[in-house]
């Protein structure tokens, strides 16, 4: 008690100091070991949150959860195409209010690592390049090309000037301590040869010359010039070293999961493996680590890159909706607390120690400073548990794990032993969205059309103002090719990006999804004249690879009709008529006023040709406090708007591959994004996030453009709440948070408290019922615990008394609380499952 009250005071003092610290100028420098703030080396934990992937009202909550989760730094890219949608016209409104986002991070007492681009990857449309950039004559992206360099320099200078005016850099008292120029250029620079190297040097010098007075980094760039720090991206970066002895080891992207594609399973990364990779990185000399992503969020509007789902959840510690993902968030929070206890020793030691072998697949790193501080890491990359001897003492070392010893004696944390509770979040209280009315998008020309002989490339034609481009032509079919009522043939598009709906003589013949490959669609023709209509769609522009300015989309490489008795009819050279975009887009049917310009029919009157239609209705905000999402599993493919805001593309009819999912995901062994895949053979995305900020209590206006057909009557809206929470902790589980006031002079062994079992419902909810409780040696996991012969029969009553009716409860794991020791001599644990309501 005394200890924790003291530590609380100390925390408050530190908090005040930190706040003051930030309000005055901080000089940022670095040496071979770490970033230095006012001359002090720091071990920093950072996490990526991309401001346009959430809303300004979500930002404070996300940042507070990051702070509580033990982060020091928020990292974000800067999205050029969001800030300069038209050349010379800058946008910092709403989700693009970057200065506001940075100030909120500052107010939370954290720092910012700003990755300015110009190219950002980020699974973001066009890697962040504005659409107009590719139409500047003579431009070549990301190489020694004058038009590109001019535009890049203009934007970077503009941005840095703006942030300086807002006093957001560390030397001005702001939170920005580090900036990045370019991004993963090392992955593509070979394509540009000498010009690429000239560009690399130019852009590094250009960035440094903006005088931000903070260090500049370049990730995934082994050839980075001396004046910038090259950094590592990957699932593991332990042992990675920059290209100079003078630079520290920074890890800019530690992938907490992976992004999801339409038609792909949902990637997940076990938290034990993330914690292992982070601990290994600091163990082997790393000093700045960033989680990519800490909160992924949503690809609203048309911001997502080619083929990536609207959800950018990333299996991150804070989920798409802004709720903590447990136990991932909590386990990493415990890890950060343990690392903080080691920070004094880690920063004092100048030379990263070499590993001491503890076995064939086990080693230790000891940071012993001259002043007496000592921190140690014991690591095992074996797939079996082991028992090792370190400095004469025995230590259990679970498979594929790192134990952290801030005094070189006591284990305060092991990456494989999860103490944080698990939370199963579900969509609850689904309410149907009713009273839909519909409007048919005309098939083909509705406005100003134009014709050419031959095929046009889609991006050059639409300027990326819309996903949709109509291609229309006419083909004569000989009587002899039509042996009976209709000739079966195949419409072949040599290359199609990304997908298309095809129509012959006004009838829908199918949807092809080709992602740049050949697309084949069976069709029926009649003798004489036939109308061929293709609605071609981009699903986001390309965001990765060299020569992005040459990207091509649509069906520009040739079209023909195959499999007719007389052979093949080439259509590539025919007269094609084009219509850019949809009539509904031009009428702005997604806005209340725009929707009044169309005549809508009740849904029962929707004809059997139920493709390409707009539907609209109104709905009330659901009750409760949870995040809100729309269930579109009954729909096909399209776009959804609420109160005029584009929530993104949906494609519920695209199911993930049948195979490749991992029923039992084993955290042991090297992770790749195809390991621990979930949701095989299910729609890639059913639920679409509607941020509360965009909703009114009543009468919200919702519009869908549905391309393929679906059943609007099954659309519903629900809130996301914890359904079940559970935890399983052994009686020896250490509790690093008991040690906030620990100094190297204390005896850690006697100060270290043991963790209680903690259950916590969402704010506004209570624990309504204990479903399982066992103090003893229960087995199983949160999906289903199992009693063993060692079980205290008071467990259920103790947990019920301590927890039911409360939002949060903590139960110490000691026999005295449970009446008697159910199995003296055995090591025991406490497992519990509860419901929130
Ligand atoms: C690039 O900028 C320089 C300096 O402002 C100018 O002289 C040059 O004409 C510009 N080049 C292009 C291609 O815009
Ligand atoms: C950066 O600082 C140098 C030296 O003080 C100065 O010459 C230069 O104009 C500054 N550049 C910018 C963009 O402020
Ligand atoms: C690892 O454990 C498994 C069983 O858990 C055993 O079959 C295997 O032999 C062990 N491997 C080593 C190297 O000890
Ligand atoms: C119609 O012609 C197609 C080939 O063009 C053939 O496959 C099909 O069997 C014919 N149907 C009838 C009813 O003869
Ligand atoms: C083909 O399209 C044109 C123009 O949209 C239309 O006038 C014509 O009636 C259509 N012909 C057929 C056979 O559907
Ligand atoms: C919609 O129309 C009304 C009435 O003409 C007008 O007052 C309002 O400003 C319009 N709203 C928008 C968003 O254009
Ligand atoms: C929402 O949360 C507030 C407190 O944050 C609580 O008072 C209220 O009861 C909650 N409402 C519901 C419906 O859960
Ligand atoms: C640290 O505390 C433990 C437990 O109270 C005790 O056994 C040990 O002797 C102490 N060590 C030192 C160096 O004081
Ligand atoms: C629990 O076990 C003790 C003896 O082991 C027994 O006396 C008691 O009645 C049991 N209580 C319950 C609630 O089953
Ligand atoms: C540095 C690092 O670990 N890079 C890895 C990142 O992940 C990719 C994809 O799994 C690997 O190919 C890299 O080696």
Description:
With 837 residues, the chain is an alpha+beta fold. The protein has four domains: 40-325, TIM Barrel (Alpha-Beta Barrel), CATH 3.20.20.80; 427-438 and 586-719, Jelly Rolls; 442-581, Jelly Rolls (Sandwich), CATH 2.60.120.260; 722-836, Rhamnose-binding lectin domain (RBL) (Jelly Rolls, Sandwich), CATH 2.60.120. The chain has 13 helices and 44 strands. The strands form ten sheets. The protein has an eight-stranded parallel β-barrel, surrounded by four helices. Strands 19, 33, 36, 38, 40 and 44 form a six-stranded antiparallel sheet that branches. Strands 31-20-32-37-34-35 form a six-stranded antiparallel sheet, with no helix packed on it. Helix 7 (271-283) links the parallel strand 10 (249-255) and strand 11. Helix 7 (271-283) runs parallel beside helix 8. Mean pLDDT is 92; it is low at 1-22. The structure holds 2-acetamido-2-deoxy-beta-D-glucopyranose (10 copies). One 2-acetamido-2-deoxy-beta-D-glucopyranose (NAG) binds next to loops.
């Amino acid at each position: 008690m005394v200890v924790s009250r003291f530590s609380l005071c100390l925390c408050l003092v530190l908090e005040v100091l930190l706040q003051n610290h930030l309000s005055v100028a901080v000089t940022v420098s670095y040496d071979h070991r770490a970033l230095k703030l006012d001359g002090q080396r720091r071990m920093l934990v950072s996490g990526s949150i991309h401001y346009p992937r959430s809303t300004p009202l979500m930002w404070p909550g996300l940042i507070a959860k990051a702070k509580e989760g033990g982060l020091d730094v928020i990292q974000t890219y800067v999205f050029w195409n969001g800030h300069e949608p038209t050349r010379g016209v800058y946008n910092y409104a709403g989700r693009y209010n970057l200065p506001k986002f940075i100030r909120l991070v500052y107010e939370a007492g954290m720092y910012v690592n700003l990755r300015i681009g110009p190219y950002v990857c980020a699974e973001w449309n066009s890697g962040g390049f504005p659409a107009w950039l590719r139409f500047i004559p003579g431009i070549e992206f990301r190489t020694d090309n004058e038009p590109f360099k001019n535009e890049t320099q203009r934007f970077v200078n503009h941005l840095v000037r703006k942030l300086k005016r807002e006093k957001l850099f560390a030397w001005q008292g702001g939170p920005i301590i580090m900036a990045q120029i370019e991004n993963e250029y090392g992955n593509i620079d070979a394509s540009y040869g000498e010009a690429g190297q000239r560009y690399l040097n130019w852009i590094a010098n250009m960035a440094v010359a903006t005088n931000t007075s903070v260090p500049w980094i370049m990730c995934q760039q082994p050839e980075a010039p001396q004046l910038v720090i090259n950094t590592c991206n990957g699932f593991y970066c332990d042992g990675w070293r920059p290209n100079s002895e003078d630079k520290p080891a920074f890890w800019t992207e530690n992938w907490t999961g992976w992004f999801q594609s339409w038609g792909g399973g949902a990637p997940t990364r076990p938290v034990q493996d993330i914690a292992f990779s982070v601990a290994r990185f600091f163990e082997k000399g790393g000093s700045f680590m960033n989680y990519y992503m800490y909160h992924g969020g949503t690809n609203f509007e048309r911001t997502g890159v080619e083929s990536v789902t609207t959800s950018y959840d990333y299996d991150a510690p804070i989920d798409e909706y802004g709720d903590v993902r447990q136990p991932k968030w909590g386990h990493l929070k415990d890890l950060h607390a343990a690392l903080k206890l080691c920070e004094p020793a880690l920063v004092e030691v100048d030379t990263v120690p070499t590993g001491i072998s503890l076995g064939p697949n086990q080693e230790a790193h000891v940071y012993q400073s001259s002043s007496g501080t000592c921190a140690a890491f014991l690591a095992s990359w074996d797939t079996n548990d082991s028992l090792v001897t370190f400095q004469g003492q025995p230590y259990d070392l679970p498979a594929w794990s790192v134990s952290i010893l801030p005094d070189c004696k006591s284990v305060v944390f092991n990456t494989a032993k999860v103490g944080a509770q698990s939370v199963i979040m579900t969509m609850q209280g689904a309410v149907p969205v009713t009273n839909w009315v519909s409007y048919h998008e005309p098939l083909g020309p509705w406005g100003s059309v134009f014709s050419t002989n031959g095929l046009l490339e889609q991006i050059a034609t639409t300027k990326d103002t819309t996903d949709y481009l109509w291609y229309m032509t006419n083909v004569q079919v000989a009587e002899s090719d039509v042996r009976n009522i209709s000739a079966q043939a195949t419409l072949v598009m040599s290359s199609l990006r990304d997908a298309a709906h095809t129509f012959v003589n006004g009838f829908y013949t199918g949807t092809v999804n080709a992602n740049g490959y050949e697309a084949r669609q069976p069709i029926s023709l009649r003798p004489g004249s036939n109308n061929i209509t293709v609605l071609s769609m981009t699903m986001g522009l390309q965001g990765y690879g060299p020569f992005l300015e040459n990207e091509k989309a649509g069906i520009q490489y040739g079209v023909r009709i195959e499999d007719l008795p007389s052979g093949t009819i080439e259509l590539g050279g025919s007269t094609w008529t084009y219509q850019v975009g949809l009539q509904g887009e031009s009428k702005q049917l997604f806005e209340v006023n725009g929707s009044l310009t169309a005549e809508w029919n009740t849904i029962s009157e929707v004809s059997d040709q139920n493709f390409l239609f707009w539907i609209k209705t109104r709905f009330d905000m659901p009750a409760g406090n949870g995040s809100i999402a729309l269930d579109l599993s009954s729909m096909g493919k399209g776009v959804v708007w609420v109160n005029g805001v584009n929530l993104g593309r949906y494609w519920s009819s695209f199911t993930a591959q049948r195979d490749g999912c991992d029923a039992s995901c084993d955290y042991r062994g090297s992770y790749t994004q195809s390991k621990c895949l979930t949701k095989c053979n299910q729609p890639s995305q059913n639920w679409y996030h509607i941020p509360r900020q965009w909703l009114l209590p009543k009468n919200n206006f919702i519009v869908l453009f549905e391309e393929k057909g679906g059943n609007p009557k099954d659309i519903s809206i629900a809130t996301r709440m914890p359904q079940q929470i559970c935890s399983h902790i052994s009686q020896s589980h250490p509790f690093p948070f008991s040690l906030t006031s620990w100094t190297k002079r204390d005896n850690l062994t006697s100060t270290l408290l043991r963790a209680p079992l903690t259950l916590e419902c969402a704010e506004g909810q209570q624990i309504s019922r204990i479903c399982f409780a066992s103090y003893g040696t229960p087995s199983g996991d949160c999906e289903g615990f199992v009693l063993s012969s060692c079980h205290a029969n008071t467990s259920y009553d103790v947990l019920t008394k301590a927890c039911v009716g409360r939002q949060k409860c903590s139960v110490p794991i000691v026999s005295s609380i449970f009446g008697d020791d159910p199995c003296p001599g055995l090591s025991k644990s406490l497992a519990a499952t509860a419901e929130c309501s």
